[in-house]
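Checklist before submission:
- one chain only
- standard amino acids only
- sequence pasted in full

Submission:
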Amino acid sequence: MHENKPSRETLDEWHNDPDNWKFGIFYFNKKDKRLLPPKRLAFMGWTINFANPFSILILLFIILTIWFLSHL
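Returned file contents:
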């Protein structure tokens, strides 16, 4: 296993820590380098890790895609 990659247990700890969920829905964890971690209810898909600097790019991409599709 890659030495910088957190273990499954660590990822689960981060995911289950309520301090990493702002307002219960926004995932914000600077230790977690993943851009798209699972949502609080993992079967519902993924969310953006807003602590990741690239999250703004993903959010901008989603907004622009929605805007573009609504103007077709």
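Reviewer check: The mean pLDDT is 92.
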